[in-house]
Each structure stands twice: as C-alpha cells, then as structure tokens.
Amino acid sequence: DLGSPMKVVRISAFALAITFLFTGCAGLNGLARKTGPKYEAEIQSWQKVIKNQGGNGMWLVTRGYRRGDDVVAILTCSSLSHVGILDADKEEVIESLWNGNVTNSLANFLEISHRVILVKPEGWTPETGRKALAKARGELERKYDFSGLIGLPSSNRWYCSELASWCWGREANQFGPWNVIHPRRLTKMGKVLFDSGPRDGKIDE
Q1: Do residues 18 and 92 touch, judged by C-beta distance below 8 A?
Q2: Residue 100's beta-bridge partner residues?
Q3: Is residue 96 a contact partner of residue 62, using CB atoms and an 8 Å limit?
Q4: C-alpha triplet 165, 46, 183: angle, nearest 5°
Q5: Model pTM?
Q6: Could you give the CA distance from residue 31 to residue 38 in angstroms, rounded to a whole number?
Q7: Spans in the chain with pLDDT lower than 70
Q8: 205 CB-near residues (< 8 Å, 6+ apart)
Q9: Which residues contact residue 88 at a Cβ distance below 8 angstroms, ignoring those fewer than 6 apart?
Q10: Contact assessment for residue 19 and residue 181, using Cβ atoms and an 8 Å cutoff
C-alpha cells in the first residue's frame, strides 16, 4: 500500500541509498569553489547577461557551492542542485534554503554558483512575471519543506523548486515521491535564455 506515509519514506530512502551507492555520481565529494580574478570576471559576465536578458519571476537554476547543493547533486546524480526566483528590478533572488525562504543579492547568488541557467517560464510576460514574483515574496520567512523532498509535503513550507514552480501555477503539496520536482526539471518547463556552463574562468555571453 503506497498510500502509507511510512512506506513512502522507506521507499524514498531506499531509492536515495541505491542512487548514492551504485550510480557513480560525478563530484561525489562535492565541488571545490573556484576563485580568483579570472573567475570574478566570469561571474561578472554572468551578471551582465542576466541583467540584459532576465525579467521578474524568471528562474535561475544552478549548481551551487553550498553544502546543501552538494547533498542534492550527489544524492540525485545531477549537475544541477538549486533554483532561485529572479527579481530583476531589485537585482535580488528569492530562494528556499534550509533556514527558510530568504532574499539574496544577485551578485552573491552568482558568487556561490558553479553554473547558472536563466530560464523564462512558459507563459512569461512582464505582467505574469511580476505576479509570480509577488507570490514568491509573499512566502518569505516560511520554513523549509524537508519532508517534501521525499514526497510528503508540509503545508506552508517550501523547498526551492517547489516554490519556484508553484509561483507559476503548479499545484503545491502533491503527495508522493513521483511528484517531487527536481531543479533540473525547471529547465524543461520554460525557455533557456542563457547557460553559463561550469565555472571555468572564461567570459560567457
């Protein structure tokens, strides 16, 4: 009976263990942050592109350097780990972190990113983007939805891609591990306007 919450937890935990042990994920020990003048110039080139092409409510899907990014990337064998919601007017990003929903400066968000993808959600216009952004701002300071990561969502809590997709009309609090939405899925739910590729010290345009 997959309707039993405890069985869902056990199945999800087992699936994560299998993924971790047998799939040979790249970057099993996490990523070492690349710093220095050439990388700073690269980050500034990302910021320039996002300022020129980005709009309110668009998604910034990333592979970050935080410990949580390493956990997500390793356990899901993915090159992507996180998503934020862009406030182009204020040059900020709204994101769900383990300590809750917060705002971050765009500059700092990019500084702690190894790769960033700018996605224009399906149906984006300046008006729909403004409304999606307003929804995200209305959820600031909510707690992180840890149980949602295994398909047991908690009301009034969010994980990053859950918040990002909900702002654009996806129903929240859908039960079952098959309804968990990974950050990488958002790249298929809109148009990719820019993909920096991994941080390599080269200017990206």
Answers
A1: no
A2: 97
A3: no
A4: 25
A5: 0.86
A6: 18
A7: 1-29
A8: 45, 49
A9: 50, 51, 54, 55, 56, 58
A10: no
Q: Are 96 and 158 in contact (CB under 8 A)?
A: yes
How far is residue 76's CA from residue 80's CA, in Å, rounded to a whole number? 9
User: What pLDDT shows up at residue 20?
Assistant: 40
pLDDT of residue 41: 97
Residue 168's identity, in one-letter code, is W
**What string of DSSP letters covers the chain?**
-TT-HHHHHHHHHHHHHHHHHHS--TTTT--PPP-SHHHHHHHHHHHHHHHHH--TT-EEEEEESSHHHHHHHHHHT-S--EEEEEETTTTEEEEEETTEEEEEEHHHHHHTEEEEEEEEETT--HHHHHHHHHHHHTTTTPEE-TGGGGT---TTEE-HHHHHHHTTTPPS---SGGG---GGGGGGSEEEEEE--S--SS---
Q: If we measure between CA atoms, which residue out of 47, 46, 48, 79 comes closest to residue 64?
A: 79
Q: How far apart are the first and last CA of the chain?
A: 51
- The total of other beta-carbon atoms located within 10 Å of residue 141's CB is 8
Question: Positive or negative, the Cα torsion across 126, 43, 204, 31?
Answer: negative
Task: Show Cβ contacts of residue 50 under 8 Å, excluding neighbours closer than 6 positions.
Answer: 60, 86, 88, 106, 110, 116, 118, 194
